[in-house]
Amino acid sequence: MEETGYMSTVRLEAVNTPSVAEIEMQPASYDIWDKKYRLKSKQGEAVDHTIDDSYKRVAKALSEAEPTAEKQKYWQERFLWALRRGAIPAGRITSNAGAQEHKPATSTINCTVSGIITDSMDGILEKVHEAGLTLKAGCGIGYEFSTLRPRGAYVAGAGAYTSGPLSFMDIYDKMCFTVSSAGGRRGAQMGTFDVSHPDVKEFIGAKREDGRLRQFNLSLLITDEFMKAVETDSDWPLVFPVNLKEQDEVNLDNPKEVIWREWPHSNSYVTREDGLVACKIYGHIRAQQLWNRIMASTYDFAEPGFILIDRVNEMNNNWWCENIRATNPCGEQPLPPYGACLLGSINLTKFIRDPFTDKAAFDWEEYKEVVRVFTRMLDNVVEVNGLPLEQQRTEILRKRRHGMGFLGLGSTMTMLKMKYGSEESCAFTEEISKQMALAGWEVALSLAKEKGPAPIMTKISSSMPPCCASALK
Fold first, then answer.
1. Three-class SS of residue 295?
2. In contact, 86 and 348? CB cutoff 8 Å
């Protein structure tokens, strides 16, 4: 079959030879597949009788995103081939793709980031509700909690003093513990927190309390400015925005009372023409003292994590249309509000020929072909995302974001008789990454020509000079 746009460079029949003798799943592997990814009926009876049945289910479900019956048949075969040859979709894809008959309210997306939690009871409880729906669909979720005013701050509407963001995190923690997450796994959450928030010390030490925030991973948002303060042993201001109702209580022109800085949103806060928000200084702490407290907690409890948030936003390709303040629950994927984590990995050991011998070689052509097919497969996941919130669906459809990685690198080097960490192995690793990126970009461009670019690209091209915009067509 001739394909318009992207055309396979390796024919299906030419790449069906196994790279090594296939090894049966070990008992632990079988148990993981059976409990987490194998499709079963309501009565607990297996729908997927073998791992290959799971592959067939996923390949069929994702090929159905193609526009014609002919394309669906073609790509179902190609997707199945890629799954057998080392493409490993993220867990929610494997568990939930094609499973609508048995669990119709589940998602193929592993993780998300919440919308901004605004500093109001409506804002806090609205995001609890959204998070509950997200966790129920099988997705993990991350949030920033430093948008909530510090403990002891006065709440004018209630005529009382707030108990602070950590106490509201406890509500999210109990909600996650209570809600059953789809697909045989417990709910997962990330809580991020700005290093300049007045309650930062309480956040750092939160998990020293037995049983507290056990459904959360925790990470601090560390700024370049804070790192400079640590280097110079300076005092570090602890701040929170000035509400419009409170602006008469502070001298906005006094730098000892107020500093101006960026904030995730400016609703209800005193804001300058340049967009910076007035932040009241609640106190100071020596930056090195705060640093030592962070390091001690990380050593003792492995938390909180450490996110260089300025560098994240500086290096984000989408810096021009989004501001990142949180990550998915494991911290490897920073995302904007309502962003989604659509991931997959390639098993590198599948591409070794004559392993453990002097003739051992890596099959670069098959590797690149699997990456190409897998790129289209992951792009099709966007169409069957199953996300429960309209904001989440809008975000993933606008940007069509997905990520691909690889696994088994150390084993692959061993099979190639390379010494891990040697100059040869480093060059091999670089080439693996380079060829994955190039093959993925190649398919992304061809998909844009065949199916149209992601909608966000239309926004870019409309603001570009004609010579640049034409390159996107």
1. helix
2. yes
Q: Provide the pLDDT for residue 19.
A: 47
Single pTM value for the model = 0.89
Tell me if 165 sits within 8 A of 194, measured CB to CB. no
Name the residue among 332, 326, 287 with its Cα closest to residue 309: 326
- Percentage of the chain exceeding pLDDT 90: 82
What is the residue type of 461?
S
> Closest by alpha carbon to 168, among 112, 116, 128?
128
Q: Does the pLDDT of residue 221 top 70, yes or no? A: yes
Rg (CA), the chain: 25
Residue with tokens 């526009």: 67
Domain 111-335 part of CATH 3.40.630.30 = no
Question: How many other CB atoms are there within 10 angstroms of residue 441's CB atom?
Answer: 11
List the alpha helices (DSSP H) in 115-164: 121-136
Q: Compute how many other C-beta atoms are within 10 angstroms of the C-beta atom of residue 95.
A: 26
CATH 3.20.70.20 domain range(s) in the chain: 111-335
User: Which residues have CB under 8 Å from 146's CB, separation 6+?
Assistant: 165, 192, 193, 194, 197, 221
d(CA 15, CA 32): 29
Kindly tell me if the per-residue pLDDT of 307 is higher than 80.
yes
Give whole-number Cα distances, 408 to 95, 365, 417, in Å.
22, 18, 14
pLDDT tens string 256-306? 999 999 999 998 999 999 999 999 999 999 999 999 999 999 999 899 999
Q: Which residues of 337-371 are buried (b: 16+ CB within 10 A; e: fewer)?
A: bbbbbbbbbbbbbbbbbebeeeebebbeebbbbbb
